[in-house]
């Protein structure tokens, strides 16, 4: 039950200061976040691509309180695209965005987020890659899906994320499993009330399998976002039964987690995309990685004990 406590800590300025100041924090954070600037992360992009892996890049930062900050987030992604262009990686290095970074929670946030994310999606398309809209808490999803639908009118390869623990997601998956769509399925990383989401792990896992079957049997491009060995095996079998070729779906895992499994799947011919975050506002992202899985928290605590 530590997950909700850690998620609460992720919103605490006092905890942010304490964790950021701890001497052990930086080497542990480096496991999940390979840099704070574009210049620091580009060698990681090239190294992963050289090993046959693909990437989706996330500029971390969610505490947006002004339109100027939302515009700065837009500009950070445009800089990333500009720096990726000469690498010639095409769709091997795409981007993931949280609409909260683009002003979604501000007054007039839906229109503001759409206006800010559109030039990012268009610029990504110009260099042969694409953007996936990350899912956040359930109150933001109607806006996210509406923006996704609007963006796909001009850039149809724009992707989105759905979360297995939400009751609504099975219906969302049926709607999204259409030709040309790109959908990443994850379990979900936000604390959601029992009125809208499954609370027990076994219920979430069963929902994940049901939704994944819908995506695999549909006409879109499923992206399996999981580190769970059992769900990865189920995904492989579902793809086989659906008659999908190895380039008609992909696995996605976080940078710093199960690197050996990422390489194993890639060596078998699977498409494996590594979710790679970078930036100075790393605290919220880092704390969610700890909350998602007890092993991540144990890794952090063990590092504090051995290095403190």
The parts where pLDDT drops under 50 for at least 5 residues are 303-308
Strand percentage lies at 5-15%
Question: Which radius of gyration do the C-alpha atoms yield?
Answer: 18 Å
Shape: globular
Q: Considering DSSP H and I runs of 4 or more, what fraction of the residues is helical?
A: 40-55%
Biggest sheet overview: 8 strands, parallel, barrel
- The assigned structural class equals alpha/beta
| Total count of helical runs of at least 4 residues | 13
Question: Could you give the distance between the termini?
Answer: 26 Å
Listing every helix as H and every strand as E from the N terminus to the C terminus, the arrangement reads HHHHEHEHEHEHEHEHEHEHH
Number of strands: 8
Strand order of the largest sheet: 1-2-3-4-5-6-7-8
Whole-number mean pLDDT: 88
Sequence-ordered SSE layout with sheet pairings:
Elements: H1 2-9, H2 13-21, H3 25-32, H4 38-50, E1 54-59, H5 67-84, E2 93-97, H6 109-126, E3 131-133, H7 141-152, E4 159-163, H8 169-176, E5 182-186, H9 201-217, E6 221-225, H10 229-241, E7 250-254, H11 259-267, E8 272-278, H12 283-292, H13 294-307
Parallel strand pairs: 1-2, 1-8, 2-3, 3-4, 4-5, 5-6, 6-7, 7-8
Task: Describe the model.
- The protein is an alpha/beta fold and 308 residues long.
- It has helices spanning 2-9, 13-21, 25-32, 38-50, 67-84, 109-126, 141-152, 169-176, 201-217, 229-241, 259-267, 283-292, 294-307; strands at residues 54-59, 93-97, 131-133, 159-163, 182-186, 221-225, 250-254, 272-278.
- The protein has an eight-stranded parallel β-barrel, surrounded by seven helices.
- β3 (131-133), α7 (141-152) and β4 form a beta-alpha-beta unit.
- Residues 303-308 have low confidence and may be disordered.
């Amino acid at each position: 039950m530590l997950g909700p406590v850690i998620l609460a800590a992720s919103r605490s300025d006092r905890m942010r200061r304490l964790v950021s100041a701890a001497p052990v924090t930086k080497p542990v954070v480096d496991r999940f976040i390979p840099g704070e600037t574009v210049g620091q992360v580009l060698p990681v992009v090239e190294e992963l691509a050289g090993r046959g892996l693909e990437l989706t890049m996330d500029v971390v930062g969610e505490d947006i309180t002004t339109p100027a900050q939302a515009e700065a987030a837009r500009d950070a992604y445009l800089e990333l695209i500009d720096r990726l262009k000469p690498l010639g990686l095409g769709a091997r290095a795409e981007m993931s965005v949280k609409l909260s970074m683009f002003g979604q929670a501000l007054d007039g946030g839906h229109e503001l987020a759409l206006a800010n994310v559109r030039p990012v999606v268009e610029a990504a398309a110009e260099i042969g890659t694409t953007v996936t809209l990350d899912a956040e808490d359930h109150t933001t999803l109607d806006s996210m899906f509406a923006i996704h639908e609007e963006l796909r009118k001009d850039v149809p390869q724009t992707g989105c994320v759905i979360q297995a623990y939400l009751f609504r997601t099975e219906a969302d998956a049926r709607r999204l499993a259409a030709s040309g769509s790109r959908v990443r399925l994850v379990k979900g990383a936000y604390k959601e009330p029992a009125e809208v989401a499954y609370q027990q792990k076994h219920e979430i896992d069963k929902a994940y399998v049901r939704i994944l079957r819908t995506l695999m049997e549909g006409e879109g491009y499923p992206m399996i976002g999981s580190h769970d060995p059992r769900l990865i095996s189920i995904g492989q079998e579902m793809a086989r039964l659906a008659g999908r070729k190895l380039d008609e779906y992909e696995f996605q895992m976080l940078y710093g987690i199960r690197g050996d499994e990422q390489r194993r799947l890639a060596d078998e011919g699977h498409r494996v995309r590594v979710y790679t975050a970078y930036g100075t506002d790393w605290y919220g992202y880092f704390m969610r990685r700890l909350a998602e899985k007890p092993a991540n928290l144990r890794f952090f605590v063990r590092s504090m004990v051995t290095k403190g």
